[in-house]
Amino acid sequence: MSRTSPHQHLHTGELSRRGLLKTAGGLTVAVALGTASDATTADAAPATWTHPGMLHNAGDINRAKVRVAAGTDPWLSGWNKLVANSHSQSTWTNRATATVIRGGTGENYGLLYNDIAAAYQNALRWRVGGTEANAVCAARILNAWSTTLTSIGGNADRFLAAGLYGWQFANACELMRDYDGFDLAAAQEMTARVFYPMNNSFLTNHNDACITNYWANWDLCNTASVLAIGILNEDGAKYDQAVTYFKSGAGNGSLAHAVPYLYTDSDGYALGQWQEAGRDQGHTVMGMGQMGAICEMAWNQGGDLYSYDSRRFMKGAQYVAKYNLGNDVPFTTYTWGTGQNCSQSSQTVISSASRGQIRPVWAMLHFHYNRRLNLDDKYISAFYHANAPEGGGGDYGSTSGGFDQLGFGTLMYAK
């Protein structure tokens, strides 16, 4: 479908401060997940692919380039965060290896996520700043991994690695796809041979576990990888697979399962309980970055998953942002099946563990819902502005959680 004009979204019922159904006294009401018969649909694979067309399109890149050159904030502040990051230096040396292991004996996956962050950040510096040395560095990193990586191993966490680093690697490649020194064909072949089969395996059989055993992020990162590889390789079947799973997949990463309960708060804002909210807030905020990446990549290929199912994702993001800003939110007991026999487990309260954790996931959502669509995103906006400008991998700790998202949203999404 064509993207709807922002003006047509201004006064939609579920997000207006007026016209929202509230229970007596402003109490919230839970709505169990149901059908999406009235959902906004997204196109299947595009007839003509857009490149660059994953997390960033040509307009994003040009805007950042012009604004940084003019010394205009907030883009300049975002640029300064990028330049200050050690991963963005053109002297970065890759550590490509044949087998990456996440979980269990011999873990070495830090080699991959650090190198991907370096490739992505160097690619951004080249795209925005025009520095050839950064392009050379990014291409060298990506070429080395494309011609060296043969397998991803470990315990069940290997599927997290395949998902997270699959979509991130493809995004770095997308920024470099027109650079002469970058071997696009090698990257396309490797992502389809190494990452995709694992992504597909997980989404298809969930490591032979109960369909609800794995948290939403496991599905989301693997869906994002299938989508990104589909775009990188101009493979419509993979693109469609990812979009279909997002809309109707059986696991917890499909939209209605990731946001199972809907509410309206006392101020009239629509909220959606996130599937991992009873687990901890670090993984919950991580989900904003994973689902956001899927929606942004589809958007840049002409599809609107951000608005799917009456903008259910926005409701989830508002809920997560509101709670992590220190406010109360409703919570409906969440019950799911675990292990291989689907034994029942329940969470009766929202978790305060890692509440307020900062990750660079909010700029993408704020600038979409608030600036592209002119919607009131009160809580998303507040959390973003409280922590801007956004950095990226290396700015949020040295462990893998600090690299679950590529970041630099202020630089690339501010409008």
Compact description:
By secondary structure, the chain is mainly α.
Distinctive features:
single chain, 415 residues, disordered N terminus
Any overview of this molecule?
This protein is mainly α and 415 residues long. It is built from 14 helices and seven strands. The strands form three sheets. A three-stranded antiparallel β-sheet has the order 1-4-5. The chain has a two-stranded parallel sheet with strand order 2-3. Helix 4 crosses helix 5 (158-176) and helix 7 runs antiparallel to helix 8 (236-248). The chain is globular and about 55 Å long.
Topology record:
Elements (H helix, E strand, L loop, with lengths): L30 E2 L25 H12 L5 H10 L14 E3 L8 H20 L2 H17 L2 E3 L4 H19 L7 H22 L10 H17 L3 H13 L6 H4 L2 E4 L5 E4 L7 H19 L8 H17 L9 E5 L4 E5 L14 H11 L5 H9 L22 H5 L2
Parallel strand pairs: 2-3
Antiparallel strand pairs: 1-4, 4-5, 6-7
Helix pairs in contact: 1-3, 3-4, 3-5, 4-5, 4-6, 5-6, 5-7, 6-7, 7-8, 7-10, 10-11, 11-13, 12-13
